[in-house]
Every structure is written in C-alpha cells, then in structure tokens.
Amino acid sequence: MRRTTLLIGLGVGLALLCLAAAGTGQVRVPPAEVLGSLLHRAGVDIGPMPSAAQGENALWVVRFPRVVLAVIVGASLGCAGALMQGLFGNPLAEPGVIGVSSGAAVGAAAAIATGVSTLGGWTVVAAAFAGGLAATFLVYTMSRSGGRTEVVTLVLTGIAVNAVAGALIGLLMFFGDADAVRAIAFWQLGSLAQATWASVGTTLPCAVAGIAAALFAARRLDLLALGDRPARHLGVHVERLRVTMIAVTALLGASAVAFTGVISFVGLVVPHLVRMVAGPGHRVLLPASALGGAIVVVAGDLAARTLVDYQELPLGVLTAVVGGPCFFWLLRRTRTRAGGWG
Asked: Yes or no: is domain 1-336 CATH 1.10.3470.10?
C-alpha cells in the first residue's frame, strides 16, 4: 500500500511540477491556462487559453518540448542508476561507471573540435550517442574473460576508460580553437536549452524501450540480489541478464546525455533516496527512480532558467552542487548505521 502511494504521489508531484515549469519564464502563463491549452489541443474545449501575448507559442514551441525532454532525460537517468546498482550490487554504480557519459562527451567533443557537420545540426548529438555506446562496448569487451564478466573487473575497467576519455577531451580542447573549447565546455556543463520536438521524438522511444526492458527484468534483478550462485539455481541466466541490462543502461544513458550534455548525480543519488522509502524490490524501485529522476531534472531545469534574470545556469552544475552534498550525507548515514566500512 505504501509503495503504491509512493508511485501515485511521485506521479502527481511530477504532473504538478510540469504544469508549474511550463508556465514559468519570461512569458508567464498560469497553470489553469497551461492546462487549458493542453486540453484544447487535445480537442476538449475546457479551460482558459493563454491570455499573454505569444503565450500559446511560448508553450508549444519552447516550454513543452523542454519540459517533456527533461522528464525523459530524468526518467532515463534515474532508471539507469537503479538498474546499475541492482545489477552490480554496488551502491556507487551509475551509468557513468560503464563509460556512457564520458564516451558521449568524447564523441561530442570530437565532432565540435573537428568541425564535422555530416548530419547538420544532429552531428554532435549523433557523435555523442555513438561515443556513449562505443565506450560501453569497450568497457564490456575488455572486462570479459573466459566467457564471463566479473563485476569488479568491469567497474575498474570503467574507471580506466573514464580516465582515458577525460584525457582525450583535454587533448581535443588543447588543440581546438577558442570557439571549440567554449562549445565543448558548454556541452559538458549540461543544458536543456536546445530542446525541440525533434529531440523529444528521438529520445522518447529509447527511454520507453529501455524502461520497459528494465521493468521486464525486475524479478530477475531481485533474485540476482541474492548472489550469482543462488540466482543461477533459481533459473536466472546471470551472464545473459548482465549483458542485456548493460545494453539497456547504455541506451538510456547515451540517448539522455546526447541532447543535454553531462547531468551528474541524478542516476547516483535518486535511487538511494527512493530505496530508503520503497525498499530494495525492483518492481517498485525502478519506476519510482524514473519518476524521481524526472522530478529532479524538471525542478533543476526550472531553477537553472529562473534563478538569475535573463541568464541560464548550467543544469549539470546545479545537479552536482545539490547532489554532491546529498550523496555525502547518504554515505555518512549509511556508514553510521553499518558501524563503519572496515
């Protein structure tokens, strides 16, 4: 009952936050008019239309695609974080561990520094997506031995690949011109300023497919929490589950950061907070983490574009500023309850 209440509460909270975020900005639109605009577009003539000049255009051209993309990105990162932590039984796991974020950053930086524009405005996005998938494949391939993937080896390989990716980004910035350096730095800070309906149309299928695949594997993830050997005895093909879920994590993480840049700590902190309320069962943890991640990113983007007049703060910096101390508090709390790590 408490878990159902949690999911309903998170869903209602996200809907209310989206209404507030869509109506907030230089052109203010009250929530009733935001809802009225949505209903009229759906063919239901109920509620007031936006009364502000250009209010309808501001909603449908700028605000709605931005809010919807924030929901998709947050849900993808939250679900991917919960998936990684359950898959590896490691509370420090997140999509960045397997190189998704750093690989995407290398791909985007390479496209920016070289000036390649084969796909026009989609070149950087495509390069980021390809970089994220390539880094994940590299980490997975290098960590396999004897037909098996050891968790410790995979995590350590991810750390090494992340370090190499950081060095490559540094080299690209060193050899790039001033405009390229500025563009690479801006991309790494994270932002939803480039959100469009086209970007929503690209990321939405990836998010839906990834979250659905994660939910389908929820029961096997619960069994995997008992350990590899007990899970095998209960009928779980551990290696196949790990390979599939790593691919799902790469799909969720790469599609999310490709359009927004690096948004840190969402996939790491949100599943921890949700687990404190919902418990470790993945059938609730995964959807609750997706809803929680969406709430965090929508709220963070709203703060990023409203805290300073006529300027927009980097979203990735805001999530790191809030998420870093929050994660430190979680570490201290867990350490205190466990009586120490040693």
From this structure: yes
Tokens of 236: 């779980």
pLDDT-derived band of residue 293, with 50, 70 and 90 as boundaries? very high
Task: Give the end-to-end CA distance of the chain in Å, rounded to a whole number.
Answer: 37
Is residue 83 within 8 Å of 247, Cβ to Cβ?
A: no
CA–CA separation, 193 and 129 (whole Å):
18
What are the extents of the domains in the chain? 1-336
Among the listed residues 89, 99, 201, the one whose alpha carbon sits nearest the alpha carbon of residue 151: 89
pLDDT (tens digit per residue) in 100-159:
888 888 888 888 888 777 777 677 778 888 888 888 878 878 877 776 667 677 778 888
**pTM of the complete model:** 0.88
